[in-house]
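Encode chain A's predicted structure.
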Amino acid sequence: MTPLWPAALLLAGLSAAAAAQDSIIVLDSPSSPGDDQTALSAEPPVCGTEPITIARMQWPSAAILAYVHADILRAEFSCAVEVVAGDLNATTSSMATTGRPLVAPEIWLGRVAPIWNSALETGRIRQAAPSFSGGAFESWFVPDYVAADNPGLASVLDLMDHWRVFANGGSRATFLSCPPDWACAVINRNLVRAHGLAARFQIEEPSNRLELDRRLAEAVSRHEPILFYYWQPNGVLAQLDLAELDMGAYDEQALSCLAETDCADPRPSAFSAEPVIIAISDELFTLSPALVSYFQRATMPLAEMNELLAWMSQTAATPEDAARRFVDTRAEIWNAWIDR
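Encoded structure for chain A:
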């Protein structure tokens, strides 16, 4: 939720979603358009007669997805495609009222729940595939070398038996959280209590995102053990070779309390499993069964997006460059999105 948006906005959005977000209507991907009563009796051209409009949001992962889909639709379906500037709220509202753009590849439903639910009720918008797969958007992490050296350390529940790994010979270990004015800082403080780790772990909260990344990079460069909070999609996870710890099951009620500064009885929970989906307009659904089928399959593995974001950071490439790189080198992934 990686944008990377301004850091405070990103982390507050992802972590606070479970505590404060409106109820979200999440549907299964739509059935085949051929079964819909509104489908045209004669199959139309694959792309119709107008350009397929795809929203390019401001944050890098969403921009990359927009250009990935644009490149594939042009090359594999011979579509005319127009990538248009987008904004999470404005794009969702526009799709609900005007049917444009036809596609939004990365919609974080928890942040637009009222707009999304209203749009579903009017039938102007449809849910296709999840935007990403293969991991949690927020979690606690350790470097890969820590996981390799400590095979019994796979989850947060294992930290009580492995706290000395992060203690550097001292009486207490360190957990690197996020800046104190981010919503995740409150959740992390309460999670330490919920897992009974307060006596063994001291929490350090960097003053800002740059300090967090600096502390993390320094520890990894020195091959030091470090336990920390982070999020994805994010190039840092690919650049530094990090391992995600299992946070356990998501408990909505527990997380609601964890997000409160004065949570009296913190109980363990994974971070919010916020739905992030590809949204398509109802017009596209009736226009092109082939394209709908494509977007019902087009889920990007988080690890792939992390790699693309890392490559962009290392090379000063653009989202268009990253999309082209993915399409040129990872056909084994996107070929599965096409119903051949």
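The chain has two domains: 7-134+274-337, 138-258.
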